[in-house]
Amino acid sequence: MTSSTTVAARDHQRKLTKPPGSLGRLEEVAIWFADRLDDVRPARLRPAIAVFAADHGVAVEGVSAFPMAVTGQMVANFVTGGAAISVLAREHGATLLAVDVGVAHPVSIPSGSSARLISVPVRAGSRNLLYEPAMSAEECAAAWQAGARVASELIAAGHTLLIGGEMGIANTTPAAALVCALTDADPAAIVGRGTGIDDARHAHKRVVVEAALQRAASARTAMDWLREVGGLEIAALAGFYSAAAQAGVPVLLDGFISTAAALVAVRNDPAVQRWLLASHRSAEQGHRHALAALGLQPLLELDLRLGEASGAALALPLVQAALTLHRDMATFEEAGVANGAAT
After folding, report:
1. Which three-class secondary structure state does DSSP give residue 50?
2. Domain 4-42+326-337 annotated CATH 1.10.1610.10
3. Residues 6+ apart with CB under 8 A from 220
4. Which residue among 138, 166, 308, 333 is the active-site one?
5. pLDDT at 236 over 80
6. Catalytic site includes residue 308
7. In this structure, which topology does domain 47-322 adopt according to CATH?
């Protein structure tokens, strides 16, 4: 059912000094936010980015081009301001948090950091999903709640758009397993190259995902699959998105791993889907399939595969521009311009 706010926002778009539809998807983005925020002409968004970090036991299977120690090192890079997402958050005026929910090799953070670190480790990385459940039910719930608490804190602070990012060496492996499990997709269509692995490692990664899915074949619900083949930061992201949706705050999704987490959240509670907007489609081959499963059309396609919420941060000024145009452009009547659509 179309809300009265949506109807009014569409009517407002038709009155602006431009041919109807000439701003393409920017018009739909503005109307989407008007509906979610229940405001015909929404104010400038106050974005916050939370990057959830954790390690993965499956990394020992050689499914990534980088060692596990890089996860903790990159958390330090987020907090000290040197990572891509740190640069983009500064550029676009977004609050940035790094959240350790399970980093196996933590790195000390020097004083004078540019972003806040929240340390709530559930355990030192997930277990190896190839041989056993990645998390116990209690661990999965703890990671989920950690993400939900971060979302609630950011919303209480007045943020009107939430962005979730992730860092975890080998995390495209659990993300691929989750997308396969929740959409019945063939691993050959979903398992990608992650950090840039070669052909032999890519083939091995696909075998690992296939074997993990077979091991956990008794799983039935999204939460079952999350525990079996997911990861701590993926569970935290799913909790983050779910809490945002429950509070009525829009979410701008990032890449493959964050979309896999969103898929878990939506399969667990379909009401979450309404609050999700896709920022981009990454070069990771399973991302297209995950977005389609959620019924989402991305704003950008730049062949990104970095994660960290970098794609969502790059789309942020586009979203802000859509709202600024919708809010600040003159109407035909205000500008004294003849409305060709009315003749």
Report:
1. strand
2. yes
3. none
4. 308
5. yes
6. yes
7. Rossmann fold (3.40.50)
